[in-house]
Amino acid sequence: MFESIIGSGLVQAYRETEYKVHGDETFTLKVEEASPALAAAHKLHGCDCSAYITAWNPLGEDQEIEVNTQRNAGLAAELAQLSLASIEGIGQHPTNQRPGEASYLIFGLTLPEAKALGESYAQNAIVWSGANAVPQLIMLR
After folding, report:
1. pTM score of the predicted model
2. Which domain holds residue 30?
3. Of 7, 80, 92, 98, which alpha carbon lies 20 to 30 A from 62's?
């Protein structure tokens, strides 16, 4: 089992966060809750896995909005360069009053690929879903 260096309070906040997916049909992903909407999106994109990743707040440290926006633009450019289908979203805890983090639901990323992408943007964690369309919190540190 992977043991994280991230504090248990922050891990719990990641588990409670609502990972909203924008697009034609909006839906919300919750960790360890099956998502029929995600299963349908997988089918639509011809894949059986996806990852929800942001470039905001590397290593969990708050950045200025301009920095976060620039980082996420870099992620968007990388997704386009790799020809990866994605949908914009926002991850936001339902009660802690922190600003949401702009994110992408990225289709067709295997778990190792998703981990590598999250690590390249210095993220503490990502959310990954396999064929069962049950989002899992994947700690990277």
Report:
1. 0.95
2. 8-121+129-139
3. 80
